[in-house]
Structure formats: C-alpha cells, structure tokens
Amino acid sequence: MTHKVGLYIHVPFCLSKCPYCDFYSVRYSREEAERYADALIRNIKHYEREFDSVYFGGGTPILLHEHIAEILKAADITEDAEITVEANPCLAIPEFLDDLRRAGVNRMSFGVQSMNADELLFLGRRHSMKQAENAVRNSHDAGFENISADMMIGLPGQTEDKIKHTAEAIAELGVTHISAYILKIEENTPFAQSRPELPDDDRTADLYLYTAELLEKLGFMQYEISNFAKPGYECKHNLKYWRCEEYLGVGPAAHSYFDGKRFCVAQNINAFMNHQNEVITDDAPGGWDEYAMLKFRLTEGITYEEAKRFGKRDEFIRKAEKLPRSLVNITDRGVNLTKEGFIVSNSVISELVF
Amino acid sequence: MSDKSYLDEIRNFCIIAHIDHGKSTLADRILEQTSTVAQRDMEEQLLDNMELERERGITIKARAVRLNYKSDDGNTYVFNLIDTPGHVDFNYEVSRSLNACEGAILIVDASQGIEAQTLANTYLAIEQDLEVVPVINKIDLPSAHPDEVKTEIEDVIGIPAEDAPLISAKMGINIKEVMERIVTDIPAPKGDPDAPLKALIFDSYYDSYKGVIVYVRVKEGSLKVGDRIKMMATGAEFQTVEVGYMGATNLVPADELRAGEVGYIAASIKSIGDTKVGDTVTKCDAPADEPLAGYRSVNPMVFSGVYPADGSKYGDLRDALEKLRLNDASLTFEPETSIALGFGFRCGFLGLLHMEIIQERLEREYNLDLITTAPSVVYKIDKMNGETITIDNPMNFPDPSEIKQAYEPMVEAHVYAPSDYVGNIMELCQQRRGVFKDMKYLDKTRVDLHYDLPLNEIVYDFFDALKSRTRGYASYDYEFKGFVPSKLVKLDILLNGDVVDALSFIVFADSAYPRARKITERLKEHIPRQMFEVPVQAAVGGKIIARETIKAMRKDVLAKCYGGDITRKKKLLEKQKEGKKRMRQLGTVEVPQEAFMAVLKLDDDA
C-alpha cells in the first residue's frame, strides 16, 4: 500500500524574533517573500506524490498569505487533506484569512502562548490578549472551524491560577485544539543570555500535570505529550511524525522522512532559493529505538502487535513490567505512558528501549 | 689492572628527595654531564620512563644507570646511580635499593626544607651505614633560604651540612661540585670477586624477549654467562643467559659481573614472582652459606574490589592485571564476585598510592573503565570457636555473634608541618582515633607530630584532609606497627531496600553512626533521581541507623518535537544510551560510577 504523504512547508520569515525561539527565521521583506514562494513552487512541483496533509510552519507563514494558493496548486493534494497555516494572532486580519481560506487552507494554528499580559510581555510576543481573541473570531468569520492555539507552561512565577486563566480563555474562544508546551531555554536565543529564572523541575512537573488535567476537563483530550484536542480534531499532519509515517519538507531547515531516509535542508534561505540541498541525517531510519521514541509520545502508545513487528514483543513487555505503574499503563493491547510518565518520558522510553 | 683498583673506581649511590625537590632533574643533569646520553636521546626525567611517573613527578619503580665520570683527580669513575621510589608505600623497595649503595645524595629544596618522606628515607640510609651527602637545590628561587636549610639538616638529621653544594638542577648550577663530592665523599664498594656469589636483587621487570630482567648489586663473588644461579629465598634455579650493565637508554651486555658492581641478569625467567626484591642470587655449584640480611616478603596492606564498568571486559581486566603483575610482584589479585558489580578482582596493594597508580595504569594503559570499591585494610578476628581469621573483604565479615575479639592494624605516623598548624593536625588525628605520642620541633617553625593511628582511618582520605588543614604544607609518613584489639562492625548500605554488597565496609563501632549519616548523604547527592523514590539506608547488623531519600525524578521530557525534526530527540536518546552504560544497575537503582568513589571522600573540610 502506498500511503499518503505529509507535506511540510517552512516559511522562515518573522517580523521580529521571540526571545525563546531557536527556529530558523529571517527578517521579512515583500520582495524576498515573493522570490521565496517561487522557489517553494519549483521544488514542490518535483514531488510526484499525493499529499493528504500540508503544514505551513515557521517562522510566520501567514506572511506568505498572497502566495499560499499558488503554492498549494503546485502540489497534488487530496480532497480531504488537512491544510494548516501557523500564524501570529496579530496578523490574523480578515483579508489575510480570506486569502488562506480561498486557497483551501482549513486549519489555523495560533501562537497565543498566554492570556496573561505579564507573561506575554515576558515572552516578547507582539500580540495582546485582545488580538488573540480577534484572531480566533476572525478565523471563524472567514469560515475556519478547525483552530489550534499554543500555550506555554513553566514560565517564571507561573501559578496554577494563571494557567487556568489562559486555558479557560482559549477554550472559551472556541478552538478545537491546544498545544501546551513547556518552555525550554534553547542555546543561541536571547533567553540563553538573560537566563530567566524558571520554575524548578518539581514545580514544572506540577504545572504540566495540572494543565493536562485541566485541559481534559475543558474537553480537550490529550493525545500527545504536548497536544490536546476535541475528539476528531487531532492534528493529522503532526500525527505522521509520531507514527513514523512519511513526510516531505520544503524550505531551509525543513526535515523529511521519505523513501527510507531522513534528510533535511540546509538552514540557509539564499542557498535554498538557488537549489534545495538535502543532507541525509539518517540513511537507515525506522528502527525500534526510533519508533518507540516517537510512538510513545502518543497516548495510544505501542501495541504488542507493533512491537512484534520489530521482534521486540517479549523484551518490551518484560521491560515495561519493571516500571512503576504510575508511569506506564499496561493493557491487553499494549503499553502507553501515563501523564506522569509523559513528563519523565525521556527516561521511561530509554528504560523501555535500552 | 689489579682487582683492587677496579673497586676503587666504582661509586654506587642513590638520590633521596621529597616529591618536587628535584631528584629527577638532578639525575637528568648528571646523565648529561657524564655524556651518558646523547643530546638527541635526552628527554626530561629520563629515569622515570613510565608515562605516569613523568606526569606525577614521582618514581614508582627503582631504576639504575651506569655512568662514566672523568674526575678532576684525573681518574675515570664508574657511577652507578640507583633511582629509588620516594613514597612510603614502597618503603621496602627503597630500603633494598639503598642497600645496593654505599652513599646517598640528599636533595633538600632550599625554600621548603626537609619533608617527612625525605627524613624517613634519610634515616633508612643512615641505618644502613650509607654516607649521606646533602645537596641544597633550587637556590635560584627568590624564596630560597639555604642557610636555614643547612641548619635544619644539621639539627634534624644530625649530619654536617656547612659545605653542602648549593645547586640548581634546573639551571645546571654547580652540578660539577656534586659529581666531585660523589667521588670524594662516597666510599668505594668492598667485596671479594672470588668469594661465593651473593647478589642483592633490588628490582626486576618483565621483558617479552628475554624474560624477567633482574637488577642486582653484586656484594660478593662474580657471575658469568652460563653460570647456574639460585634465588636463595624462593629456591628457583636458572641458567644465566646474559649479564651486563644498565646504560641510560639500553642494556649493555658484559662478560661478567663482579663484587661491587651493579648490573642485570637475564636467565629466561618466566615469572617475576621468582625474583623477589631483597632476595639473594647465588651460584648453584658454589653457593653462599647464607643470604644477605634483611629479606622479607612484602604483604599488601590495602585491598579493594576492582570491577570492569562494562561486565564483558572481565577477561580484559584479568589480562591487564596479569601483565601488570609481571612487573610488580607486590600486586596481588584474586577473582571476586559481587552481586552488585558482577565479576571482578580483589586486589591487594602496598598502600593507597600504589592502589591509585595501579588503577590509573589499568585505565590508561589498558583502556579499561573501572569501578573500585572502598579500600579496606586487613583485620584479624578471633572467633568464638577458637579460630583466628584475617579479613580483607567486608563481604567475609562474620556475624557479630561469632566474634570474640576483633583486631585492627595500627601505624606509627609522623606528620611534619609548620607549627602554626599543630592545632588543626591534632584535631584531625584525634578525629581519626589517633593516639598522641610526642611532638618535636624540627627548627624554630616546624614540628614533627608523632601519632599512632589506625590504618583504616588513613586509607580513605587522610592525606587530603591533612593537606586541606595545613594549606598543603604538611607531609606525613607511616610505618606498620601491629594489630590492636578494636570494636569493629560491618556497615551495610541499602538502596531501595536491597543491600549493595559492594558498598559495605568495616568500621570502628563508635564511628558507625556518623559515617553512616555521611555516606547516605553522599549517595543521595551522587545518585541521580530515578523514576521512583529511592530510600538510601545504612545498617549495622540488620538495624537501620541512617536514612536519606532520593526523591523521584519529576521532569525529563522534550516537550516539543517540531516540524518533523527528530534529530535532537535522537541525539538525546543516544546520550541516554551512553549514560546508561556508565551506570550500574544495583537491584532496581541505577548508580553512576562516581558514586562509588564519592562515598570514600568523607572529610567535611576537604
């Protein structure tokens, strides 16, 4: 069976850089964006596969709103494909959203991050809480029903109350999906310089567990370590990553898993404009380690059948049984991590694999 | 040339010095000045040819070199310089190499004065009737105070030092004067080349082509190639294949070795155990009536379990230990099994430095990753059933109900330090159950503190503790004294309820409680949080006397796995795999190797 492939399109333009972000991005200019869209189209035309999910990530992909339609036209996309565009809430104005909607985009993902003014200030976000509200309302008005919002856990001095305020406010806007990430200080970011004082591990773990339970109470069921959705609204594209399904990435710093190889494109927009240079990061992927590492991120976990495919069934059961039940669920079907297991998943997975 | 005159032109001597006082540098200068070594072959610390020796600036093995020196008196002399180890652990080897000489050059640092080890070795030399020639080194240093050091030598050692050469081995100042003093002050050897052979073994090493090479000082008689020889203590017999002298960079074969000379013997000897330092070599057909005095077999004082970090390297560890033993007869080992650590070896060492050196050589020269257990000394136990046993491994400690009386080894220790630190040193010795004997002033500002100390109190970290309390100024030396009755208990460590045999150790009963508290604290610091709560307990005879808790790990997650980029996550997984290799699974708990060493360093102020 040739299953359908996901398409990731990296849009490395930002109006400004957030102090926690280490994704590849450059300053936006109209001319540059136009040339970039052309380069994307040239590359996408090469692919002779049918895509059932497309994800515009960034950067700030909505800055490319005028070009999204042509880009999508270049690809062979199924009727029911999930097509997502990430956006900063302050750019979610009706004109832009209409462009996206007309181009066939059916899912918006907003970097809301927080609904507390002090936290937004700390994160250096350009938008206000009001703008976040407008972004979702405008999206609804433009005809979007599937909308995701990001929120952040583990900010300095963050309390359960603040999280509650953000989560409830976002839920109230009528989104269908919430990604709740723990803030991590990345090297080569302004935060790595200023070293803000984050809650310690115990506190962060408490906040994470609180958030996960709260979101479920609000109707967003956890399906991955950091992702929660109303039933049926799990992000199809991202699920491909965790289920070890194929995806192709276009644009500098975009990663692919395709045709038995993992590869990525060099982080250089100018080089990309001339030619998409792909560097193989793994020429023999698809091993048990990798599968376990990705699949255990999902609440669905790994079934005994799946483990058997790798010849790891017995070993996997034996190792799982040694772990505390607070961290793993062992069922008739297979094994999955609990919420407490997720927050120490690096260790749990390493126990299950090595 | 008559037989008499060949003896007149030989000088056999060694150099006594504290670490860093310049022994190897002076030896290098002497080699240069006698043109024994071509300039192109000259490298620093020529006699210390083990990498570890050069790095630590110490001599581990005795070595010897033969030099020709044309003196101002017009004669050419044969100098046999015998390099001796400087450390207390190798005390016996030192005494044997001193025995091969008629004189000793005593180097004293012009800014530091006499140190404990120097003094101990100088006394050994004087006891053996060696002519001691004091030399004051490092006079080029601004902090040099040679006159005070001269007085110190006279007051403390009791030998004249007024006209001691003032030299700088580093700068090459006054080396010639030292050479002349060797000629004029150190007596020529005595001995009758026609008497039955008596040759003292002062070192040996294994050569993969020639077998064991034995370094000897011929005291009486002579030896030729083809002679059958016998080791008087071990009884082993061999046919001599080659004799000769020690050149600076290679062995120089000769026709024979005669009384008074220093040289080597090769006799296709397979085992270094047959050529014990201190033994006497004689001829089978005309044996000496009795061996030279002073031979004793050296017994290990300190024991520890040595395990490969990676269990599959057990065979490699055994091979490495066997190779090391080829050159180090004082190293003992036998297989040992630990529930916690798997298969390894119980190794016996002469002392702590010896232990550290062996461990370091295993890791470096044989590329092994090791886990070593807390060093233990040898205890004696009278059991209720009338039996007396010796124990060097806590795993074999009998049940308290079987013990009638336990004994522990005591040492006589001398600590040399500036008098300002007397209070600190006494406090430390007191804490370590020391019994104060007396205190002497070496000069106006320096003292010699004399204590009896239980060996088990100094094997852990005594020297570190001493240095930290005296800002590095103290030196110390000890000698085994004997066994004394003691109250001993075995302290067990439990992780998550399971006894970890490799962490058990024997301790003085009254120290058990504070020691238990510290060890549990240390383990808590060094064992990373696990996925579940881990109690760390210490117990004596099944009774828990201390407890700490390692809280469960709370957060270890890569929250974001973005845009299908899994490289970072993969790297992390690889790192975890590597990290896991460095951990030991003790029951349900993963313990990093560092934790085993950390529990040994218990000194609060260190």
Description:
- In chain A, 40% of the residues lie in helices and 25% in strands.
- In chain A, 47% of the residues are buried.
- With 354 residues, chain A is an alpha/beta fold.
- Chain A has two domains: 5-241, Aldolase class I (TIM Barrel, Alpha-Beta Barrel), CATH 3.20.20; 288-353, Orthogonal Bundle (Arc Repressor Mutant, subunit A).
- Chain A has a nine-stranded mixed beta sheet, with helices on both faces. Chain A has a three-stranded antiparallel beta sheet with strand order 12-13-14, with no helix packed on it.
- In chain A, helix 2 (68-74) runs parallel beside helix 3 (94-103), helix 3 (94-103) packs across helix 5 and helix 11 runs antiparallel to helix 15.
- Chain A contains 15 helices and 17 strands.
- Chain B contains 15 helices and 33 strands.
CATH top level assignment of the largest domain in chain A: Alpha Beta
Mean pLDDT of chain B: 86
The helix/strand class of chain A is alpha/beta
Q: Segments of chain A where pLDDT lies below 50 for 5+ residues?
A: none
Radius of gyration of chain B: 27 Å
Largest sheet features of chain A: 9 strands, mixed
* Biggest sheet character of chain B: 8 strands, antiparallel
Q: State the total count of DSSP E strands of chain A.
A: 17
**Number of helical segments with 4 or more residues of chain B:** 15
Low-confidence stretches of chain B: none
Work out the radius of gyration of chain A: 20 Å
Helix-residue proportion of chain B: 25-40%
Query: What integer is the average pLDDT of chain A?
Result: 94
What's the end-to-end separation of chain B, in Å? 63 Å
**Record field, number of beta strands of chain B:** 33
CATH homologous superfamily assignment of the largest domain in chain A: Aldolase class I
- Tally of contiguous helical segments of chain A: 15
Largest interface (CB within 8 Å) is between: A-B, 53 and 26 residues
Q: Based on the coordinates given, report the CATH architecture of the largest domain in chain A.
A: Alpha-Beta Barrel
